[in-house]
Design goal:
Elements (H helix, E strand, L loop, with lengths): L38 E2 L6 E2 L2 H4 L9 H4 L16 E2 L2 E3 L2 E3 L3 E2 L30 E2 L2 E5 L6 E3 L2 E3 L16 E2 L6 E3 L4 E2 L2 E2 L1 H12 L7 E2 L2 E2 L7 E2 L8 E2 L12 H5 L19
Length: 271
């Protein structure tokens, strides 16, 4: 007798015979891969129920080594799209057709922008005239748009230049994340309390009303004060004098007539 003769010789150690279907069929049901079809090895007459034989697409087990599967329907996909979109599983292979190709220069899906390869950030369109998120009464006055992960990035856009010190920060109406801090100055107008607080640090004095120092405000969102050398600390025109502090007009040598109240700094004469 030999394997394949149509007889299952248990004495010889045979478990099945290829010609006797009932000797091996349905045995995958005894394994985690119950959807497959078992077989009988034609050389050894042993029942075959390994992953290669019983594993099939749709059995809920990702058999990467045995079957080359990349995923299984109904099983969470660990792989994700590089930028946005949804990775899918088709015939137990990953399908990226639902992914958005951020960076191909084509605006698609949920993308708001898509720079072409070689695009230099900061060379995009000007923000001027664009509406401010959550602030429909305002439009941006300065800055350039950026494209980050194929979404428009407004962090470089600002209100600097509209002649109004906009104290409120600009927040994303969707996430609430701060897009731009509030302003401290704008086209000659300044938040005097904010200036006094910053000057107090370099002058080494309390932030008294009217305290000023040498400063500039090029971006409208922060003062740049002179940290080295002479910070030119002084009290502004028409503000109460402070002990040990000069009036600003004194430093410029252009004080006007003494104010009615000697405890108040006089006005600076116009040139």
């Amino acid at each position: 007798m030999a394997c394949g003769d149509g007889y299952v010789d248990g004495v010889a150690g045979e478990q099945c015979d290829p010609l006797v279907a009932e000797s091996f069929e349905g045995r995958c049901g005894d394994t985690p891969r119950a959807l497959g079809e078992s077989a009988c090895d034609p050389d050894t007459c042993q029942i075959v129920t390994d992953a290669v034989q019983c594993g099939v697409c749709g059995d809920g087990i990702v058999d990467a080594a045995a079957l080359g599967e990349e995923c299984e329907p109904g099983v969470a996909i660990e792989a994700s799209c590089p930028h946005a979109g949804q990775m899918r599983c088709v015939d137990c292979r990953l399908d990226d057709s639902g992914c958005e190709e951020c960076g191909n220069g084509i605006v698609e899906g949920t993308e708001a922008c898509d720079p072409e390869p070689g695009f230099i950030q900061g060379s995009g369109s000007l923000c001027e005239g664009m509406p401010v998120p959550g602030r429909p009464e305002l439009t941006y006055e300065s800055g350039r748009l950026h494209c980050a992960e194929c979404q428009i990035d407004l962090t470089e856009c600002g209100l600097c230049g509209n002649g109004v010190v906009d104290l409120d920060p600009i927040l994303s109406p969707v996430t609430g994340v701060q897009l731009r801090p509030g302003e401290v100055c704008d086209t000659g107008f300044e938040d005097k309390a904010a200036l006094a607080a910053q000057c107090a640090t370099v002058c080494g004095v309390p932030a008294v009303p009217g305290l000023e120092c040498a400063h500039s405000c090029p971006r409208c969102i922060e003062f740049e004060v002179v940290a080295d050398g002479d910070p030119q600390c002084c009290i502004a025109d028409s503000m109460p004098r402070a002990s040990g502090m000069e009036c600003c007009c004194t430093l410029s040598g252009a004080c006007g007539p003494i104010a009615t109240d000697p405890e108040v700094c006089p006005m600076t004469l116009s040139p």
